[in-house]
């Protein structure tokens, strides 16, 4: 029950409840919800910057993966949450982590036309040559989606 309340507080952006429960029971900080999401991944997915900050201050593992192999950074890249991405990168997130589909944050940023996230990732060493399970690189995804700005950016950095 306490774990459900903790994850619901993250989803709702209720920092006070997250802090209260997390400070009282540190095991919650490293728990997983029914879908395999960590608190950090869920906070990143819902763009809860203050909760991301709290969890990082508490020392949660920045690159823990959910059931699909997504990290918090991968989770926020397709949504375009630049503020969260910056926090995760500052905390040491692997910008080249891959999920079970072989996709990286850069591949998702490109696929979902998130130019600012793509620039951020490239500025922190994201590799353009990584290919997903279907054999496509970020540049391939930009071309397939017809995202000319991203295609130009990736061509310049390849």
Textual characterization of the structure:
The protein has 2 domains: 1-94, Ankyrin repeat-containing domain (Serine Threonine Protein Phosphatase 5, Tetratricopeptide repeat, Alpha Horseshoe); 98-158, Serine Threonine Protein Phosphatase 5, Tetratricopeptide repeat (Alpha Horseshoe). The protein is 54% helix and 0% strand. It has helices at 2-12, 15-24, 39-45, 49-57, 72-77, 82-90, 105-111, 115-123, 138-145, 148-157. Helix 3 runs antiparallel to helix 4, helix 8 (115-123) packs parallel to helix 10 (148-157) and helix 9 runs antiparallel to helix 10. The chain starts with a helix and ends with a helix. ANK repeats lie at residues 35-67, 68-100, 101-133.
Q: How would you describe the shape?
A: elongated
User: Helix/strand/pairing class, anyone?
Assistant: mainly alpha
Q: Please count the helical segments.
A: 10
The CATH superfamily label of the largest domain reads Ankyrin repeat-containing domain
Report the CATH topology name of the largest domain: Serine Threonine Protein Phosphatase 5, Tetratricopeptide repeat
Mean of residue pLDDT values: 95
Task: Give the CATH architecture of the largest domain.
Answer: Alpha Horseshoe
Strand content: under 5%
Radius of gyration: 16 Å
* Cα-to-Cα separation, first versus last residue: 49 Å
Keywords: ANK repeat, Repeat
ANK repeats: 35-67, 68-100, 101-133
Organism: Muriicola jejuensis
Protein name: Ankyrin repeat domain-containing protein
């Amino acid at each position: 029950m306490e774990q459900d309340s903790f994850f619901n507080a993250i989803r709702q952006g209720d920092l006070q409840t997250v802090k209260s429960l997390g400070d009282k029971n540190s095991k919650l900080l490293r728990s997983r919800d029914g879908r395999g999401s960590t608190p950090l991944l869920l906070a990143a997915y819902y763009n809860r910057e203050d909760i991301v900050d709290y969890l990082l201050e508490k020392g949660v593992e920045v690159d823990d993966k959910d059931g699909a192999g997504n990290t918090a950074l991968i989770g926020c890249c397709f949504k375009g949450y630049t503020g969260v991405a910056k926090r995760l990168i500052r905390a040491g997130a692997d910008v080249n982590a891959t999920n079970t589909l072989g996709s990286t944050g850069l591949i998702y940023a490109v696929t979902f036309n998130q130019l600012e996230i793509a620039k951020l990732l490239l500025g922190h060493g994201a590799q353009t040559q990584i290919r997903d399970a279907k054999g496509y690189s970020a540049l391939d995804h930009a071309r397939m989606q017809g995202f000319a700005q991203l295609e130009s950016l990736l061509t310049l950095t390849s």
